[in-house]
Design goal:
This protein has about 120 residues and is α+β, with helices and mostly antiparallel strands. About 15% of the residues lie in helices and about 20% in strands. It has a three-stranded antiparallel beta sheet, with no helix packed on it. A two-stranded antiparallel sheet has the order 1-4. The chain is elongated, with a radius of gyration of 23 Å. It has helices spanning about 5-15, 50, 85; strands at about 35-40, 60-65, 70-75, 95, 110-115. It has a domain at about 35-115: 2-Layer Sandwich (Alpha-Beta Plaits).
């Protein structure tokens, strides 16, 4: 019992080793990969992010008749590896260096945008 006394006193008198999250938020480390975002105006709905995603949390659908596309991400399935960001040809995907807010409900990130139509070269 007396062997533990110095350790107990040290722990009582020292600062806490943990933080009271979300009241106390620590600044993220350098090169931290945080929450995933998509600039839907730049997105061409090429599905490269969906194909390369190891956790298969991204779904891209394109409706050519309506001229719209839908980009959906399940943040609960995402492992925040950043492969989709690296593979995006238009750099519409990016990660902000912040934590995603805690949530009690499963919320999908869904964005709808216009599909860009390639202009055909005029024949001479």
């Amino acid at each position: 019992m007396l062997n533990m006394t110095p350790t107990v006193l040290k722990n009582i008198l020292s600062k806490s080793a943990t933080r009271m999250y979300p009241v106390e938020v620590r600044e993220p480390f350098e090169l931290y990969r945080g929450e995933l975002f998509n600039d839907i105006e730049k997105c061409i709905f090429c599905k490269k992010c969906q194909i390369k995603c190891p956790s298969q949390c991204i779904t891209v659908t394109k409706d050519k008749d309506a001229g719209t596309g839908t980009w959906t991400c399940d943040p609960f399935a995402c492992v925040y590896c950043g492969i989709c960001v690296d593979e995006c040809p238009t750099n519409s995907l990016y990660m902000k260096p912040k934590h995603r807010a805690p949530s009690a409900e499963r919320e999908m990130m869904e964005q709808v945008g216009k599909v860009k139509v390639k202009k055909k070269a005029a024949k001479k």
